[in-house]
Structures are given as structure tokens and as C-alpha cells.
Design a protein that fits this description.
Chain lengths: 142, 537
């Protein structure tokens, strides 16, 4: 293994966890932040009321591997529809996009079409979220 | 003797950290402090209830949380609930309204009417409460960041319809400190936010003395991860912060404390919750009497809505939530609450349908009509277990309150994000315990269905058209109203806010001129600024 490779493999997975829109329910987002940190990931938590523009900008500026949203108040589809072109315009389509929260099963196909491949509705376990991220982030990181 | 019988009993702790014994006797009651704080219902310290006859005289008010779409949609749901025997209203507002945005604000896009009803101007309140007798049906407004504006709007609406505002009853949630801890519909920074709460208390004490301008919420702090003892202790710390602000203005405690009310949660261990409420009643009375010098009994009453149980309901096997709701209602009734509301079984998924809201209403009615819960006051009083636990819960709450004071007070701890961090760490630990099975949840970590069935939940439809209708309505009001009056009122609002005067008279004037929620909020933001959330783990 080359030195360069070994340096890159110990880099921690970096996650942006955002609260989109006006939703104030942050209990779930905050416990997931803790779970990801306990799993050894670096997590940037945005706090409440992020616009699509703010999420895209932070994802770019922070050079994250994962863009994660936590949505409980039902506006996930309009938000993701606005976010997708912004992430693409910033060349972030190769990053892992995941979403969790109150996400009715009937909306999952739409969310996948909007680029959110990892969908974690209420009731998802920490291990499932952590494993999914580890297995799907590009292999340059641990 | 089998192996299990030979094993020593494992200690059991309740969520508040109190050890629960297999048997309680008179000895435990004495060891926990005896019955000094028990008294009689309707008498200090009110542990057994704030009224002498409680439900024998009048059952609890039933007040399901409701609101969605445009005010006209919500008005229909209100009328449906009233027709089905509901005795109060509890209004849900959409997020733009809750954080002071007009419907045509770009940030409101996609959120109008989604989690509650949309309100821009007084016209929306006129529509929402049309045909509802505000003397018979008391209205609770679940509004916090924008509470001063919506209280002004409610009082103006009632006055316009000919009600005597001096006699008007009703409640606003208006507990901003808990919004910083959980729920998140803050607008202004901490200090001016507390000042606005003080403005509403001061204004109502004079102009609407029967209106309850604040309902201090342990509820959402519990939902955010607090245990039951913390839920009540933190709520008391918050109520004291509001009371202190008002007293600094020169009001006597007995001039306003009688209109303070509370909102607490009802999920969890039945006995722990009942003890929590009984303990809280005694402790609050003691605080008001000994620390604040209150003399009127009403100033010492822990008047409350014991509600919801949302944090206890599960996404899995949602129909089982109907049964949970029934036990939560029982807890609420055994606790001596003034008002009750239940989360409906489908609320982990969606806004309740008429059908699910009606099941919640029937759950409460069945306790009144069939189960004998209204016949005798404080029916668990005198139980060795409940009395011991009541003493222990009160001591726990006193310890937590002393700890908050020692750390600099609730305002400081909330401003720094310390309470938020503490309860969020507890929520994380609880979720870990649920995932490991250490904390049992039926249908989640035990008794799971082998194959998840189709969930018997009907999703509340979101009507995209609602946004357009709401924005058209706002534009129509803007075109029709007397713009000079609006501008004049907004100038006064700005001047009063920056001079440190009570902003309520200016808000009432602005509301009556059909100024919008967003316009009034923006004037206040210019003076007060916006809250910056501390991120702390």
C-alpha cells in the first residue's frame, strides 16, 4: 500500500447534516449527529432553517462526503426538488445524498429520482444509517 | 423453587432515576417525608388538585390540536370537532405563521398550510373562528415566536365580533424559552423574546384579565429528551424567568400569576407521571407562596393541559397507538388536569384525519362517561406507592431546579445551548436503549410483526392550491386596506419596540389595520435582531 493511499484511507468520513426548511423538530437530527460521531465520522450540523442554497454552499465549502437532510414537517419533496439542481451545479452529484425523518413510503421513489439514494424513515436504526454511509461513500475514505 | 425465584431482584429505576420497590408501606411514605405536602383538594399546597370538587363539578376540557390549509379548511375541522363534543379548540399554525413569515415570502414556499393553518392577517382569524361562540368554546393558540402578534389578533377579532375582551377566556402557548430547547419556532434573540412574553402578560393583566397569555411547556422539553422530573423542573425555571421579568416592571405577583398555565406530557410509566403531576402541583404552590409571596390561591395553582404523548407513540404498528392513547388519557385524568388533548394514532405519520381525531375524542369521553374517572377527586391519593413517589419526584424536581440556579439560571443555560445539549444526549441514550432492547417498546424492539403490514393510516392530502389561495387573499387585503393606517401603526410599533415600551398596544392597532404577520415581525426584527442558534454537542 502506498503512503498516499494509507493517508487517504484514514481520513474520516465527513457528513453535512442539515435541517431543511422551516421545520423545528431537531431531536432526531441531533441524535443522528451523535450516532455518526460515535461511529467515527466528522459531522457538521447546520442547525435549523436551512435554505437549499445554504445547504449546497456548505456542502461545497466543507468538502463533505455525505449530504444528509432530516425532515419531519412534510416539505421534503419541494425542498429536495430545489436542492438537486443546486448540488449538481456545484458538481456535488458524486457525493452521497441521504435523507431521514417523516418520509411516507409513497414518496420514496420521488426522493430517489431527486438523487436521495439513502432514505431512512422514522424507525430506522443507527446501525443501518452508519452502515449505509460506510458502504456507499466513495472508497477513498474509510 | 425455580432458578428465577432464587435470583436477587434486579433494581428498577424509573425514567427520573428513582428506584422503584416491589412493595410500599406506610414506612416508605414516612421515610420519603410523610404527608406534610398532601393537604386537601382545593387547599394549599394543592397536591391533590387545585379545586375542591374537581371533575365532579366539571370534567376536563377536551382540546384536540387541529389546523391545516387555509383558515376556511380549519374552520370546518373546528366545527366537526365541536359537533362531536369537543369543548375547547387548540389551533395548529403552519410554520411560516409560527416564525412570522407572510405566505408570499420566498422562505414560506412549500410550507403554507402544511402543518397547521396559514395566517397572514386579521381576516384569516375572522374566517377561522366564524360561527364559533368564543364564550362557550375557549381557544388555545399554539403559537410562540409570533405569539404577541397572534394574541393581539385574537383579542382584536373577539372585540370586532362584539365580545367583551375583559371577560374573554383563552390561552396562548407563548413559551419561547422552550422553543429554544425544542420545537424551534423562535424568531428573536433570547432577551427580547422574554421581554415580548412579559409584554403579553403585562398587557393581558390589564386589558384581558381572564385570558391566559402563557402556557409554559414541559411537554416539548420532554419530547426533546428530558425525563419527567426534568420536564417539570425546567418548566418551573422557565415560568420563574417570565414572572421575574414581569415583576421587574412593577407588577405584583397576584396581578398576573393567576393567569399562568402549563402544558405537560403524559407518556411513560403511569405511576411516575401521576406522581409528577401531584408533586408539581405542591412544588409550584410552594414556590409561588414562599419565593414570590403570592397570597391569592389562584396564583399558586398549577393550572394545566396534560396532553399529547407524541413521544411515546410509535411509527410501528400504529393502530396500537390507540391503546397507548387510552392509557395516556387515563394518566391525564388520574393526574387532575384541567385540559386534555391526545395525539391521534396516525400522528407519527400525518395530520390526523377526522376519523382518527374522533377516536381520540371518544377515548377521553369514555373515561368521563363509562369509567368513573370524574366521580372522585385524586383517586390514587393515599396509595403508599403514589404518595412515596410524589414526595420523591418533588425532591428530584427541587434538586434539578437548584442545579439550574447553581449553574447560572435557565436563561443563561438556554442561551448557551447547555440544556439543549443535555437533553439531546439523553435522547440519544434513550434511542440507544430502545435499539438495544434495554428500554422496551412494544412493536419496536419486542413483539414486532414478522412482516410489516400495510399501515392503516390515511395520509392527509397537501393541497398545493392552498398556497395560491392564501397568497391571493393576502394580496387582496393589501389592496383593500387603508395603507396610511398600516404604516402609522408599524411606525408606532417600531418606536415602542426601540424605546422599550410594551409593544402590545401598537400590535393591536396594527392588527386592526390588517397589517400582516410578516410586516409586524419584520419591524420587530429590525429592532431586536434574529436569534442565532448555539450548536453544541
Amino acid at each position: 500500500m502506498s503512503a498516499e493511499k494509507s493517508v487517504s484511507t484514514i481520513r474520516r468520513i465527513k457528513v453535512l447534516l442539515a435541517k431543511p426548511g422551516l421545520d423545528g423538530h431537531d431531536q432526531g437530527a441531533k441524535v443522528v449527529v451523535r450516532a455518526l460521531m460515535d461511529a467515527g465520522m466528522e459531522v457538521i450540523y447546520t442547525g435549523l432553517r436551512q435554505t437549499p442554497e445554504a445547504v449546497a454552499r456548505m456542502a461545497l465549502d466543507e468538502d463533505v462526503d455525505v449530504i444528509a437532510l432530516s425532515s419531519l414537517a412534510g416539505s421534503h419533496i419541494p425542498f429536495c426538488a430545489k436542492l438537486k439542481p443546486l448540488l449538481e451545479a456545484n458538481h456535488l452529484q458524486d457525493k452521497l445524498w441521504v435523507i431521514g425523518g417523516n418520509l411516507p413510503a409513497q414518496d420514496h421513489d420521488t426522493l430517489r429520482q431527486l438523487g436521495f439514494k439513502g432514505i431512512f424513515p422514522t424507525g430506522s436504526k443507527f446501525d443501518a444509517i452508519v452502515d449505509y454511509i460506510r458502504n456507499n461513500v466513495k472508497d477513498s475514505v474509510q | 423453587m425455580n432458578d428465577r425465584a432464587k435470583e436477587p431482584l434486579k433494581p428498577v429505576l424509573n425514567e427520573s432515576g428513582i428506584e422503584v420497590k416491589p412493595l410500599y408501606t406506610q414506612v416508605d411514605v414516612e421515610a420519603s417525608g410523610g404527608l406534610n405536602m398532601l393537604g386537601q383538594p382545593g387547599e394549599y399546597p394543592f397536591t391533590r388538585g387545585i379545586h375542591r370538587l374537581m371533575y365532579r363539578k366539571q370534567p376536563w376540557t377536551m382540546r384536540q390540536y387541529a389546523g391545516f390549509g387555509n383558515p376556511a379548511d380549519t374552520n370546518q375541522r373546528f366545527k366537526y370537532l365541536i359537533a362531536n363534543g369537543q369543548t375547547g379548540l387548540n389551533v395548529a399554525f403552519d410554520l411560516p405563521t409560527q416564525i412570522g413569515l407572510d405566505s408570499d415570502d420566498p422562505l414560506a414556499s412549500g410550507e403554507i398550510g402544511r402543518v397547521g393553518m396559514s395566517v397572514d392577517t386579521l381576516r384569516d382569524f375572522e374566517i377561522a373562528f366564524d360561527g364559533i361562540d368564543l364564550n362557550k368554546i375557549t381557544v388555545s393558540l399554539t403559537i410562540n415566536g409570533a405569539a404577541a402578534i397572534l394574541i393581539a389578533m385574537y383579542l382584536a377579532m373577539a372585540e370586532k365580533r362584539g365580545y367583551d375582551v375583559k371577560q374573554l377566556r383563552g390561552t396562548a402557548q407563548n413559551d419561547i424559552l422552550k422553543e429554544f430547547i425544542g420545537r424551534g419556532t423562535w424568531i428573536f434573540p433570547v432577551e427580547p423574546s422574554i421581554r415580548l412574553v412579559g409584554d403579553t402578560i403585562e398587557y393581558c393583566a390589564e386589558h384581558a384579565p381572564k385570558y391566559s397569555p402563557v402556557s409554559v411547556c414541559g411537554y416539548h422539553i420532554r419530547e426533546s429528551g428530558a425525563n419527567p422530573a426534568q420536564e417539570m423542573a425546567y418548566a418551573f425555571c422557565i415560568a420563574k424567568a417570565y414572572a421575574d421579568d414581569v415583576i421587574k416592571r412593577g407588577l405584583a405577583v397576584d396581578e398576573f400569576a393567576g393567569r399562568l398555565s402549563y402544558n405537560f406530557n403524559i407518556f411513560g410509566n403511569l405511576f411516575e407521571q401521576v406522581a409528577k403531576f401531584r408533586a408539581g402541583r405542591g412544588l409550584w404552590a410552594k414556590i409561588m407562596k414562599e419565593q414570590y409571596g403570592a397570597e391569592k390561591p389562584g396564583s399558586m395553582w398549577l393550572r394545566m393541559i396534560a396532553a399529547g404523548g407524541g413521544g411515546g407513540l410509535t411509527f410501528e404498528q400504529p393502530e396500537v397507538n390507540i391503546v397507548r392513547g387510552a392509557y395516556y388519557a387515563l394518566i391525564s385524568a388520574l393526574s387532575g388536569t384541567q385540559t386534555m388533548a391526545l395525539c391521534s394514532y396516525d400522528e407519527a405519520y400525518t395530520i390526523p384525519t377526522e376519523y382518527s381525531a374522533r377516536i381520540s375524542l371518544r377515548t377521553m369521553q369514555l373515561l368521563i362517561e363509562e369509567m368513573g374517572l370524574t366521580e372522585t377527586v385524586d383517586p390514587l391519593g393515599g396509595s403508599f406507592y403514589v404518595e412515596t413517589l410524589t414526595n420523591q419526584m418533588r425532591q428530584k424536581m427541587e434538586e434539578i431546579m437548584a442545579e439550574v440556579d447553581a449553574q447560572g439560571g435557565i436563561v443563561k443555560l438556554v442561551s448557551e445551548g447547555a440544556i439543549q445539549s443535555k437533553v439531546s444526549a439523553q435522547a440519544y441514550q434513550m434511542q440507544r436503549n430502545i435499539e438495544s432492547g434495554a428500554f422496551p417498546k412494544v412493536g419496536v424492539n419486542c413483539y414486532r410483526n414478522e412482516k410489516e403490514e400495510e399501515h392503516p393510516v390515511e395520509f392527509h392530502p397537501y393541497n398545493e392550491e392552498d398556497s395560491r389561495v392564501q397568497i391571493d387573499g393576502l394580496n387582496k387585503i393589501r389592496a383593500e386596506r387603508d395603507q396610511a393606517k398600516v404604516s402609522q401603526a408599524l411606525v408606532r410599533l417600531s418606536a415602542d419596540a426601540s424605546a422599550g415600551r410594551n409593544v402590545m398596544p401598537a400590535l393591536v392597532e396594527a392588527v386592526k389595520a390588517y397589517a400582516s404577520v410578516g410586516e409586524m415581525t419584520n419591524e420587530l426584527v429590525k429592532i431586536f435582531g434574529r436569534y442565532q442558534e448555539p450548536i453544541r454537542f
